[in-house]
Here is the input.
Amino acid sequence: MHCMMTDAGPATLDILDPAFRVSSPQTAEAARRCWCAQTPLGIAVLRYDDCQALLKDRRLRQVGVDHLRAQGVSAGPLFEMWRRFLLNVEGPGRDRLRRLLAPAFTVAAVNRLRPRMREIVHGLIDRFAADGACEFMSAFADHYPPRVMAELIGLPEAEHEQFVAWGKALASIIGYQVPQHLTEIEAALAGLYESIDRIVDERRQDPQQDLVTTLVHALDGDHGELDSEELRANVAGLVLAGQDSTRGQLGLALEIFARHPEQWARLASQPALAENATEEVLRANGVAPIVWRVATEDLEYRGTPIAAGTRLWLMVAAAHDEAAVFGDTRFNIEADRPAQLSFGLGPHFCLGAQLSRVELREALPILAQRLPGLGLAGEPVHRSQLAGFVGPEALPIRFTAAR
Here is the structure.
């Protein structure tokens, strides 16, 4: 690796160490030393401008099914679902799927869900507001994003909790313990597929304003824009993506606000800060501290030759802490910042970015107003940094109980 910044050359980061954190003094020192670092699994990219440039670079692709193959999973229901999901499709196939799915995630489509989001938020808080404490993930974060996604997709309300359970099982796909969870994942996938097939048949008879109806039209239309396996895979993938990422981000938001109570009080008194607060949470404590990419061809970047097949670990959490870009990087919901990179850029910009942002913008000010005096009631239990989407598995909080 070539680095113009120092004679010492790039540092080495052991990202396989369970104690590794992107937001750590070790990573910050590596970023000061060079734009990149060596890892056991490829090149770590550490700075904002470089992460931004490489996210846009069409010579890089998503990791896709390589992630499963590296763990010994190269066939079977999970492999087939993962290779058909929009996240992992490249080229014309990606453009076709994105065109079919995108209308469900437009600003107008997402804004129609805002009243329902507020209703769900208040309903969940009602269950624990008088208690003065709760385990936030199981009390709130496990339920809010899946219910919103279920509304968007068109999943029956009576089955929401079953879809939550399936989504939690599917979340193991993102991490590095897929073989250990394969039986559980494939059982969830089988249940999900059976339910999707039934809902597809129902929408043929009784169309609704939801994503499944849109996909049924593409499936049954004259142009054959979609096949049944693609429909199943992408609805299943959205159940996972729409549930797990925003769930983790909500937990990370509450955790950082609990450590900055003055910011929580400010959001409660100024709910118009919700949009800025959401972007600052995504920057300072984002659910995707690392974005994975793979080189599709031999290339050179900043004097460093990168062979085809090399994995790049774009450490956006390190980039988000770069003082040369963001100034004072301490958590501040009133700060005016450059754009954060948590949703990616370029051809793989997150399709659900607008939905996730609006879910957070609606939930955070309501939570701030209804849970004053927020603090941690114990240490959070976190996922591994290599789990794709990070965040707390358990987040005990305390607050002033509602009368």
Observations:
- The longest strand covers residues 291-295.
- The domain at 25-398 is CATH 1.10.630.10 (Cytochrome p450).
